[in-house]
Amino acid sequence: MAQPLLKKDDDRDEEVEYSPFLGIEKGAVLQEARVFNDPQLDPRRCSQVITKLLYLITQGETFTKIEATEVFFAVTKLFQSKDVGLRRMVYIMIKELSPSADEVIIVTSSLMKDMNSRTDMFRANAIRVLCRITDGTLLSQIERYLKQAIVDKNPVVASAALVSGIHLLQTNPEIVKRWTNEVQEAIQSRAALVQFHALALLHQIRQNDRLAVGKLVSSLTKGSVRSPLAQCLLVRYTSQVIRESGVNTQTGDRPFYDYLEGCLRHKAEMVILEAARAITELSNVTTRELTPAITVLQLFLSSSKPVLRFAAVRTLNKVAMTHPMAVTNCNIDMESLISDQNRSIATLAITTLLKTGNESSVDRLLKQITNFMSDIADEFKIVVVDAIRSLCLKFPLKYRSLMNFLSSILREEGGFEYKKAIVDSIVILIRDIPDAKESGLLHLCEFIEDCEFSYLSTQILHFLGIEGPKTSDPSRYIRYIYNRVILENATVRASAVSTLAKFAALVDSLKPRIFLLLRRCLYDNDDEVRDRATLYLNTLAGDSFAETDNIEEFLFGSFEVPLSNLESSLKEYIQDPSEKPFDLGKVSKEVKSQPLVEKKAPGKKPAGLGAPPAPISAADTYENLLSSIPEYANFGRIFKSSAPVELTEAETEYSVNVVKHIFDSHVVFQYNCTNTIPEQLLENVIVIVDASEAEEFSEVGSKVLKSLPYDAPAQAFVAFEKPEGVPAVGKFSNLLKFTVKEVDPSTGETEDDGIEDVYQLEDFEVVASDYILKVGVSNFKNAWESMGPEAERVDEYGLGPRESLSEAVRAVINLLGMQPCEGTEVVASNSRSHTCLLSGVYIGNVKVLVRLSFGIDGAKDVAMKLAVRSEDISVSDAIHDIVASG
Amino acid sequence: MLLAVLIANSQGNILIERFNGVPPEERLHWRSFLVKLGSDNIKGIKNEELLVASHKSVFIVYTVLGDVTIYVVGKDEYDELALAEAIFIITSVIKDVCGKPPTERVFLDKYGKICLCLDEIVWKGLLENMDKDRIKRLIRLKPPNDF
User: Fold this and answer.
1) Is the model's pLDDT at A586 over the cut of 80?
2) What is the pTM for the complete model shown?
């Protein structure tokens, strides 16, 4: 039985603390609710019962339909009471019970009466309850009262109507839009909250009318907005207007910037922060515009209020992604936040510092982070690990300390996602920074000695098999790998056996000793481990494959047949068993879906082990695809494959993009086509290419795409011959030609007759940067000096007037398509000169390094000095030619 | 949208919760996430000292008041700054209703009044009233003083 609610007596404070709801039961409370039907109502008792009902609802108790209806009907009886306290409880109870449409009618008349009551507060509450339970028909009946309420003198009534309007706009927009005049009047209200609610509602009503929003903003930014909350809304709407209107090209002024800047001096902190945030998010924000915002954010970093510190550091963290140099002034304040008790603030501070720090501050920063890492949750740690990885790629010279940091946190406690993030980072660093390879591999080896996650162990073993044999002393890894065979579960053991075999295949000197180890695996108690060991021993020993020189390719090469094709062929084979063994050679090699890289994820690097380099890298996917086409088999290896270039607008009938594959003396265009119409089947799809603006190219053949069903991407190809080793450029026009057949989507049946049709595609170009691979160097200075001045070419260029120095640097990097080194692609926001270092490999596998020195004058004219060093003087000249003609 | 207001006792049991625009199937996740967040971080913090976190695109501001922990969750325009305003008014009215930072018992004794106050402050995910004296009058159906 529920304990009765007792009035709190101060003398009882020290007595045993028991809940007034101890032992509360739904059935008993529903019984108690019968007091609502008493002819002589006891308001106090009724309020207590409603409180209990509210408690039950909050505790997740649900009422059956019958129970809810009974309680609702009983509660409506309470409208008879004149007790205001009880009436307030009745309002909340009806809202909580959310009566069904057929029940609402019972209470409507009482609420309508309250809505016109002379007691203001009855009006306000009745409006809120009615709006909660009303539907469209009832709403049009009470619309007149709601419009009156919006301009009611009592601010509580006006706010109730306005907030109801915001909710009702979602369900009955056509009715609420008729209230615009009243809402506009409410914006002028002297009551701060009414103004806030009216502004929010008016903006929502007009949000699709750019002109109206512009007018609203320009009138309110001149006038006085009383509540800070409304001021924040206005700042947001203003930045929306700025985004849509852009900069005045004649004066260079941005409309409303002065208003935002003025808000930085507002007395309410929330308005200042909102304005600062809006300024930092302006597109192409200049240093002059950014500086005052950064200054106020810096002040908030040392605020005593955690929310302000959080808001400031969160904003600066975002700024650091686009304008790292603008944030550097705040670094000292941010360093003190690393020890902030609020771990969210500390994490944001660290990741910001990692983005803005310079090479010399890395070690100091790492020391501070080490202390911090032990007492934050895994999700924060992952954010830090990601930031460390980016920092290491930015400052490759610092790989040693950063790699040590990663390996030390790898040894500490942590969940799977966290460990995976660290391992992924180490793998990426090994891949991108050649000097980091050996130490990184050893860190990974140490990790698998005590790794509780089989998935990570197998992935690392796979990676070791690829990278380990290429190191100076491959034998040092064998112990770690063989330990897995002795100590781990079957999955890891099988992986370890494969890794051992890779070492044996690639390092002749280790072969006899590894065979010894593999022979021991023949007695393993798991059949997969035994099978692998047997296969590797037999093939690598050279007995059965004596005359084949391609054993490595057979054992470890990437699988030529797409797995989905193999799966369907095997299914067919099982369904229709025959005496003949399954023939892998008969499985189609045609890739049915688009290669992985074409799933658009702009700016995302392949994540560490999630995408191991050998089997599913973009290059390999393309290599496999093209080698499966006999006509292109003699073109040699692909030098470079471009990112896909879209040749159609988004959401058109046929979606086509092209990947340019550059070979030594050929270029192959891979057209990835998707048919987005379920009622059509395209057949004999071919791309007709007009190369009249690409004189050095001559077409040597195209591959027809036989069938292109709905939503099953497939490829057509066109190959061109070009002078060997020459970076020929040109423009190509494209026309898609095909036979279209009608398909009945419900049955999938296709009509026999088709109609020939064509579809115009966009043009694209083969440019100089298609002949340069982005390959970084870990130490540019050493690489530059080792290249020597013999093959150096230096010249100066005027780039003319430019928007900014940063834009000029970006343009030259894009023109050359080379890898920026040591973070030099980022230009300090106020600097007048900048040096950018680039590295790459030119067609013919010639390494090339570029040093760009930029200067900008008052008229924004940019001059550039270009120094190129390469292994071949003609390549240095070629780079100058690219710049001169670009 | 102000997605949730949750008030839990020191053991992490929910005393009051008000979700807005959060599907029922996600509420359990939020409940346990918030309670864990609290138990990981609130140790040793003073009454009404605010803690902030963000989880995906959602912001959370929370604090301790006597025996209870108060969490407010918001997204979009209800960022950490707006949530700080909301939690400030919630803590003020609870202190006012209970007379001091409440023990769990006192909080439950005043349960009905606290529900009414929350109903005045947040209505279906929008901040409606922010003045504690006004709210005190509104829950007794009295018009605001400044009117």
Assistant:
1) no
2) 0.64
